Amino acid sequence: MLRVAQQADRQAFAQLFAHYAPRVKAFLMKSGTVPALAEDCAQDVMATVWRKAGQFDPSRASVATWIFTIARNRRIDVLRRDRRPEPEDLPWGPEPEPDQLDALALQRDTERLGQALAELPDEQRVLIERAYFGDLSHSEIATATGLPLGTIKSRIRLALEKLRQKLT
Fold first, then answer.
1. What distance in Å separates the CA atoms of residue 46 and residue 49, rounded to the nearest whole number?
2. Helix axes 63-83, 35-51, angle to 10 degrees
3. Which one of 2, 28, 38, 82 is at 20 to 30 Å from 76 when CA atoms are compared?
4. Tens digit of pLDDT for each residue in 6-44?
């Protein structure tokens, strides 16, 4: 790896490629990637290894760790890309109006939820509001309130269970 990083040694890279490319492909396939995509990703990972060899720091990670981290990150990128809708799949124009029965049912459910939230103990209701309406993580709530993270999680879990019971 150091010869690749310092001298752009093609022979050394060929040895790295022969050793790691099949292992990267197997790693990707074990994590659920289809064989053709795993092959493409493995090729891409090894091309990245060639381009970024100068960034490799043997004091921070082994060669294998560095290469497999690149592979893991590439797999995550591919998964995110595949979940993104294509522009032609996006709806165009205004959304259709919901029918009146659906609108009434939604309004009734919203009222029931509001009533159920109001019946929760204050320490649980406040945490639910911060987590779901304030869009805060449990850690952010713990920091804001000064309560231990475990207490935050327990109270939210208890509150959600009470809401489930009241709404079913």
1. 5
2. 130
3. 2
4. 899 999 999 999 999 999 999 999 888 889 889 999 999
Q: Which amino acid is at 7?
A: Q
39 vs 29: CA distance, rounded Å: 9
In tens, the pLDDT along 117-156 reads: 999 999 999 999 999 888 889 999 999 999 999 999 999 9
Q: What's the rounded Cα separation, in Å, for the pair 63 and 50? A: 12
Say how far apart CA 23 and CA 17 lie, in whole Å.
10
Supply the DSSP string of the chain, one letter for each residue. -HHHHHH--HHHHHHHHHHHHHHHHHHHHHTT--HHHHHHHHHHHHHHHHHTGGG--TTT--HHHHHHHHHHHHHHHHHHHHHSPPGGGS--SPPPPPPHHHHHHHHHHHHHHHHHHHHS-HHHHHHHIIIIIS---HHHHHHHH---HHHHHHHHHHHHHHHHHHH-
